[in-house]
Amino acid sequence: MTRQELEKIEASMTQEQIIERARTLRPVAEFKETGGMRYWVDGCRIHSESYTWSINRLKPTGYLRELGRVRTYHHGSPWFFKPSVDECILQCPYPDAVAFQIVPDSYSGYDSELCCHEAETIYFAGDMPEDIKNLEIIW
What we know:
The chain is of the alpha+beta class. The chain has four helices and six strands. It has helices at 3-10, 15-22, 85-90, 130-133; strands at 26-31, 37-41, 57-60, 64-74, 99-102, 117-126.
């Protein structure tokens, strides 16, 4: 990935388009204390906060079908990996994806050329419950 390619991806959607897509593409996470069960999680502020820092587990996802794994790029501090929901939305190549999960410990060191961390993100298809669809989206 080059800086120009990343900038093109970041400019590919408006804030309003990202917010609209966030209604149908939500973060999920696996929890060790539940035996690795996957849950829908609160997306916090989708642009300015990392959804992985203070995860609010909502409800089990049920069956989700993996669509694919993608190398994604995440801005932030060179010292801290802070992926945001909007970064995962912008880099999603699957129109039918309803969920995504950053693979734990898949992120690389900080790339000073890109000003980003790189990680592996899994995108999933499946059914999203109405109460998850209706969660408030905060930029």
